[in-house]
Amino acid sequence: MNKRILSFVLSFASLGACVELSAQKFDQIARTPPMGWNSWNKFNCDINENIIREIADAMASNGMKEAGYEYVVIDDCWHGERDSLGFIQPNPKTFPSGMKALADYVHSKGLKFGIYSSIGEKTCQGRSGSGGREYQDAIQYAKWGVDYLKYDGCSPANCHPEGAIRTISNALKEAGRPVVLSVSPFGEPWTWAEKTVHMWRMSSDIMNCFDCQKGYGSWFKLGVLQILDETPKYRRYVKPGFWMDVEMLQVGNGLTESQNRAHFSIWAILAAPLMAGNDLREMDEPTLKILTEKEVISIDQDPAGIPGFRYMKVKDLETWVRPLAKGEWAICFLNRGLTSQKHEIDWDEMFNAKIGMKKGTYSVRNIWEKNNIGTTKNKLTVNVQGEDVVLLRIKPVG
After folding, report:
1. Residue 2: per-residue pLDDT
2. Which tens digits make up the pLDDT trace of 184-228?
3. Is 99 exposed, middle or buried (0-12, 13-18, 19+ CB in 10 A)?
4. CATH number at residue 68
């Protein structure tokens, strides 16, 4: 064991698990919402190294990499047993080549590699979690070449959530390799973890449904709209490098084309991380077109980092607005119902609504139709189909 590893292990032994530390995250990464892919929504535990390699191949060749996607993240169930020194190992049956070789392959495609663990001794699926092993795991992740860690909240036992998050953040920082740290909503990290994590979940798990929820006792899986409805109370915490994670995308996992379009647009309005969750190897052309729509992605990745908010609701039709850099705005008309809705935009009303939109003349562009439709000097009526959106971007003229 070299001196650096010995130093980490001694630090771990003296600190113990789940203590509170004054951790500082790597603050020069994730300055815009992270973009990538996660295995869970599509594959759950049925994951192996061949799938991950093929997903990386697809992302690197189908236009997603050029559109900004970069992280390939393995969720739960990759874990094997720990070795005689306590270092975590991958499952030899599903990841026989090892994580270092897999990370190297992902990196060879110009992409980044992500992995999953949990706060307790066990992950949500009963594999070996990081509780009590945070520094050892951080050493192993750095050795493998991990760039992103999804850190879940299962099996906390008597662990203090804030201490646990600070511990893993500090361990990653000391290991020396920049890692995006994404945590679940345990311990309400949005209230205190700005200097510790890069993104934080604020809801229960998403399901491949646009408007529904499914109960599991006291716990629920939520549809796209159900998660959207929870976001307003968290908006004030969001800033560049500290993102509200509204869950991984279900685009391409059984939703209709219009629902996929609405789902993707809403996440962009919210300045949410865009983590695809479908099978990139087999998706159809409409799904790929939605996931790689650069004008929507540019809204999501806007450098101001200000999430949108619901400006108006009339029956099933909602108006969401998001301030962008350089005085621009994104406006999303969301139809939650099944029948089409028409809406005439009152620009003067929006300018006078004290939402920060300066009075003046703006050019108007319909993003999905790729159509410039005049300026705010003219009246504009939008027709929003059922469970769909009309997404506009307006820019000051002159």
Report:
1. 52
2. 988 899 999 999 999 999 999 999 999 999 988 877 899 999 999
3. buried
4. 3.20.20.70
**What are the residue numbers of the active site?**
152, 205
Strands, E assignment, the chain: 35-38, 71-73, 79-82, 88-90, 112-118, 148-152, 180-183, 199-201, 213-216, 219-222, 243-245, 274-276, 309-314, 317-323, 329-335, 341-345, 362-366, 371-375, 380-384, 388-396
Residues 206 and 248 in one domain: yes
Residues 44 and 264: their CA atoms lie apart, in Å, by: 22
The β-bridge partners of 183 are 151, 200
Clarify whether residues 179 and 328 are in a common domain: no
Domain of residue 140: give its range.
3-300
A 10 A CB-CB count for 341 gives 21
Q: What is the pTM of this model?
A: 0.94
pLDDT number for residue 268:
98
Question: Do 351 and 233 fall within a single domain?
Answer: no
In this structure, the answer to whether residues 348 and 204 fall within a common structural domain is no
Of the listed ranges 5-14, 73-82, 250-259, 342-351, the one predicted with least confidence:
5-14
